[in-house]
Amino acid sequence: MRFGVMCLAPCRYTDMEHISDHDLDRYYLGMVVDEAELAPLEEHLLCCHGCLERAENSGKDIDTLRAAMVAGNFDLEDSVREDY
Ligand SMILES: [Zn+2]
Hints:
About 50% of the residues lie in helices and about 0% in strands. It is mainly α. It has a domain at about 20-70. The longest helix is centred in the C-terminal third of the chain and has 23 residues, at about 50-70. The chain is elongated, with a radius of gyration of 17 Å. Bound molecules: zinc ion (ZN).
């Protein structure tokens, strides 16, 4: 087992910082709409399994949170309509 084999394709983003959990959440929620931010983020996910895994995990967390909100366990907003 050698180090440095995680990135199979030459990747110019290996030098950049890994994606933060916060940004992964924003990406998953579709809140990253700026192409200048989105493009490197997606390319990083293509070649960085660590971040991809974290993206999937945070995605699951968000799905859980959403499900809980739908189920009414979270009262984040008083104005949430219940006729939906
Ligand atoms: Zn990464």
